[in-house]
Amino acid sequence: MDGLVALAWGLFCGGASLVGASVGWFSKPSPRVTAGMMAFGSGILMSAVAFELMGEAWHAGGLFATTIGFVVGAAMFTVGAVVLAEKGARNRKRSVLPEKSTAGVAALAIALGSVLDGVPESIVIGLSVLDGGVSLPIVAAVFLANVPEGMSSAVGMKKAGMSKTYVFGLWGGIAVLCGIGALGGYMLFHDAPAEYVAVAQGVAAGAIVAMIADTMIPEAFNETHNAAGLITAAGFLTAFLLSHAFG
After folding, report:
1. Distance spanning both ends of the chain, measured CA to CA
2. Do 52 and 243 contact (CB within 8 A), yes or no?
3. pTM for this structure?
4. What are the pLDDT tens digits along the chain (247 aa)?
5. Which residue, of 28, 41, 103, 116, has the fewest CB within 10 Å?
6. Which residues neighbour 82 within 8 Å (Cβ) at sequence distance 6 or greater?
7. pLDDT attached to residue 131
8. CA distance 211 to 66
9. HEC profile for the chain?
10. CA gap 138, 144 in Å, rounded
11. Signed CA dihedral, 161, 167, 170, 171: sign only
C-alpha cells in the first residue's frame, strides 16, 4: 500500500511540470514572470534540502553516509549536465532556446536533461514515504519547483519551434517517470539499512543542489537580476514555514 502512495505522490509532483508546461504554452507568460517563478522554486528546493533531506539523512545514517551521498549526487548530476550541454541541452530550463533550425538536434538532449533533473526529486518522494507517510514539505517543495521548470522549458521549446505534441508528450512522460522513480525509491530502500537510506537521501540532495545552481538560478537571474535574491529568499522562507508547520 505504501508503494502505491509513493507512486501516487510521485505522479502528482511530476504532473506539476505538465501544469507548468500548459501555462507556459497557452498563456504566454513574460520572461520576467517565468524567471521569477524559477527563483521562487529555487528557494523552495534549497529549504527542502536543508531542513528535510540532509537533516533526515544525518539523523538516520550519520554524517559520513550523508556526506558521501551528497558528494556523489552532486558529482553525478554535474557530469550528466556537462554531457547534455555538449549535446544541446545547456539551456533546457530557460525561456530562450536554440532557433528552430537547431531545435531538432537539441530535442533528445532536452528530454534526457529533464529526466536527469526529475529523477532525484522523485526518489526523494519515495524515500519520504519510508517513515510511514509522505513529507508534506517535500511534496510542496517539489511540486512548487516543478511548475516554473515546466513553464520555462515549454516557453523555450515553443519559441524553438517544437510541436505541441512533442512538448506535452515529453512532460507527460516525465510525469510518469517521476511516479515510477518515487515507487522505485520506496521499493529499493524500504528494507535497507539506515546508512543506505542516508546515502540515497544524500545523493538526491547533492543532485538537487547542483541542479539548482546549474539550471534554475541562471534562469532566475537572467531576467529578474537584483530581484532574484529576494524572490529566492521568499521561496526558502515559504518552505521553511511549511516544514515547521507540517513537519
Report:
1. 22
2. yes
3. 0.80
4. 677 888 898 899 889 888 988 988 888 777 788 778 778 888 888 888 888 788 888 988 899 999 999 999 899 888 887 877 776 555 555 555 555 544 444 445 555 666 766 777 788 788 777 766 677 777 877 887 778 777 777 777 787 778 889 889 888 888 898 899 888 888 888 888 888 888 988 988 898 888 888 877 887 787 777 788 899 999 899 888 877 776 5
5. 28
6. none
7. 66
8. 18
9. CHHHHHHHHHHHHHHHHHHHHHHHHHCCCCHHHHHHHHHHHHHHHHHHHHHHHHHHHHHHHCHHHHHHHHHHHHHHHHHHHHHHHHHHHCCCCCCCCCCHHHHHHHHHHHHHHHHHHHHHHHHHHHHHHHHCCCCHHHHHHHHHHHHHHHHHHHHHHHHCCCCHHHHHHHHHHHHHHHHHHHHHHHHHHCCCCHHHHHHHHHHHHHHHHHHHHHHHHHHHHHHHCCHHHHHHHHHHHHHHHHHHHHC
10. 10
11. positive
**C-alpha to C-alpha distance for 181 and 10, rounded to whole angstroms:** 7
Locate 40 and state its grid cell: 521562487
Q: Determine the distance from the C-alpha atom of residue 102 to the mean position of all C-alpha atoms in its chain, rounded to a whole number.
A: 26
Cell numbers 531542513 correspond to what residue?
Answer: 51
Q: What is the distance between the alpha carbons of residues 122 and 6, in angstroms, rounded to a whole number? A: 9
246, burial (CB in 10 Å: exposed 0-12, middle 13-18, buried 19+): exposed
Cα dist. 188→70, 191, 227 in Å? 18, 8, 41
Residue appearing with cell numbers 510511514: 132
